[in-house]
Design a protein that fits this description.
- Keywords: ATP-binding, Cytoplasm, Kinase, Lipid biosynthesis, Lipid metabolism, Magnesium, Nucleotide-binding, Transferase.
- GO terms for molecular function: mevalonate kinase activity.
- Its EC number is 2.7.1.36.
- The chain is of the alpha+beta class and about 325 residues long.
- The chain has two domains: about 160 residues, Ribosomal Protein S5, domain 2, CATH 3.30.230.10; about 140 residues, 2-Layer Sandwich (Alpha-Beta Plaits).
- The chain contains nine helices and ten strands.
- The longest helix is centred in the first third of the chain and has 22 residues.
- It is globular, with a radius of gyration of 19 Å.
Length: about 325
């Protein structure tokens, strides 16, 4: 039996623009985890096949979607090791990451599975090799995946990501991020298609979107490292306005953003591909309770608090 673990993530800024080569900032959510267990079928039947079971919060749709990606991932893993045939693999995934919320559920499931397989086969897997394998499944799930999810679900600190390169972010402030689930699943593929249609219909729209996103990511990174929470919060809200202007938000998401700001959050935005999913809000510790309460009153079905103080934030 081999085991592997991964966790959720949230995009702070950079959604969609990251696919076009811009940078993005990502936050690990360590309390939302996926644990994979991989072993050989007890009956020895089903040569070379895969038995896949998921428990936890996932829906039946995720089981079907993830199973297709994981079959491809396992085939790629075996090819990398030169393994042919063998008895049927049994993979059990226990996930607390809600599906379709922009929290990296598919990437976390894939990473946990990759690490479980490496453990099962006694194979030392580099971080880059794990990333490449997770991307195999991510590209099946989302089409053209930027790679930020595949990196962030294994990160121990906030990350800067651009074109496959990652750097840990220096954190110079003591604040909390509150992630609020709207209760409605988003669709990255649908959002990507909607944005592309808008770019094609309006000459120069893509350049304006990516340029504005890049400016906000750069400013937010500086505010995070230099300890300017108000500026970081303002950039979050401005990025939400960018996403909303592109048609990627919803009335429910907008209501949660407004509720967080009304309760004293320094900034708030949609996180992930859009058309549903989650909101992420930045708050000072003394305001976190009020912001969380107001998010629930505005319709959030669940919330999670991520403290920057609890993450490895000693990046240079």
């Amino acid at each position: 039996m081999g085991t592997g673990r991964a966790h959720a993530k949230a995009i702070l800024l950079g959604e969609h623009a990251v696919v076009y080569g811009a940078a993005a900032l990502a936050l690990p959510i360590p309390q939302l985890t996926v644990t994979a267990s991989a072993g050989w079928a007890a009956d020895g039947d089903g040569q070379g096949e895969l038995s896949y079971t998921m428990t936890g919060t996932a829906s039946r749709a995720l089981v079907t979607q993830a199973s297709d990606g994981l079959r491809r991932l396992i085939a790629e893993f075996k090819a990398r090791l030169g393994v042919a045939g063998g008895p049927r693999l049994d993979v059990l995934l226990d996930s607390s990451v809600p599906h379709g919320r922009g929290l990296g559920s598919s990437a976390a499931s894939s990473r946990a599975t990759v690490l479980a397989l490496a453990d099962l086969f006694g194979h030392a897997l580099s971080e880059d090799a794990a990333f490449e394998l997770v991307q195999t499944a991510e590209n099946m799930a989302h089409g053209r995946a930027s790679g930020v999810d595949a990196r962030a679900v294994g990160a121990t600190a906030p990350l800067w990501f651009k074109a496959g390169r990652v750097e840990p972010l220096r954190v110079g402030l003591d604040a909390l991020f509150i992630v609020a689930d709207s209760g409605t699943a988003g669709s990255t593929k649908e959002a990507v298609g909607l944005l592309r249609e808008g770019f094609e219909a309006h000459p120069g729209a893509r350049e304006r979107f990516v340029g504005r996103a890049s400016d906000l990511v750069r400013d937010a990174r500086s505010a995070l490292s230099e300890g300017r929470p108000e500026d970081l919060g303002a950039r979050l809200t401005e990025y939400h306005d960018l996403m909303r202007g592109a048609g990627l938000s919803t009335n429910r998401i907008d209501a949660l953003v407004e509720a967080a700001l009304w309760a004293g959050a320094l900034g708030a935005k949609i996180t992930g591909g859009g058309l549903g999913g989650c909101v992420i809000a930045l708050a000072r510790p003394e305001r976190a309770r009020q912001v969380t309460r107001q998010l629930h009153e505005a319709g959030a079905v669940q919330t999670w608090v991520v403290s920057l103080k609890g993450l490895d934030n000693h990046a240079p």
